[in-house]
């Protein structure tokens, strides 16, 4: 599970910007942000670099994600 959408929201960055910077389609980046698809390790590191966060900040254990979502 990842926290890409949460980090994007916190930083006020749009998924379209991230898609452009990664050279990927909006559809793929949206799938990453909504946890329908997980990025490769290489892509995860690139996302972290672009968002100026650590890779660890982008990852969460599944039970932590449930707590963040109020479940």
Structure, described:
The protein has 71 residues and is mainly α. It is built from six helices and no strands. It is globular and about 25 Å long. The mean pLDDT is 90.
Pick out its properties.
single chain, mainly alpha, 434 Repressor (Amino-terminal Domain), 6 helices
Summarize the structure.
By secondary structure, this protein is mainly α. It is built from six helices and no strands.
Task: Compile the SSE list and pairings.
Layout: H1 4-11, H2 15-22, H3 26-33, H4 41-51, H5 55-58, H6 62-68
Radius of gyration of CA atoms, rounded to a whole number:
11 Å
For the record, the CATH architecture stands as Orthogonal Bundle
Residue share in helices? 55-70%
- Give average pLDDT, whole number: 90
Strand content: under 5%
Low-confidence stretches: none
CATH homology superfamily name: lambda repressor-like DNA-binding domains
Structural class: mainly alpha
Tally of structural domains: 1
Number of strands: 0
Biggest sheet, in brief? none
The end-to-end span amounts to 15 Å
The secondary-structure element order is HHHHHH
Question: Which fold name corresponds to the CATH topology?
Answer: 434 Repressor (Amino-terminal Domain)
Shape: globular
Q: What is the highest CATH level, the class?
A: Mainly Alpha
Give the number of helices.
6
């Amino acid at each position: 599970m990842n926290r890409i959408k949460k980090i994007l929201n916190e930083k006020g960055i749009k998924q379209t910007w991230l898609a452009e910077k990664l050279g990927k389609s909006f559809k793929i980046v949206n799938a990453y942000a909504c946890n329908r698809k997980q990025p490769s390790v290489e892509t995860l590191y690139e996302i972290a670099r672009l968002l100026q966060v650590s890779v660890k900040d982008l990852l969460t254990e599944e039970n932590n994600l449930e707590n963040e979502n109020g479940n």
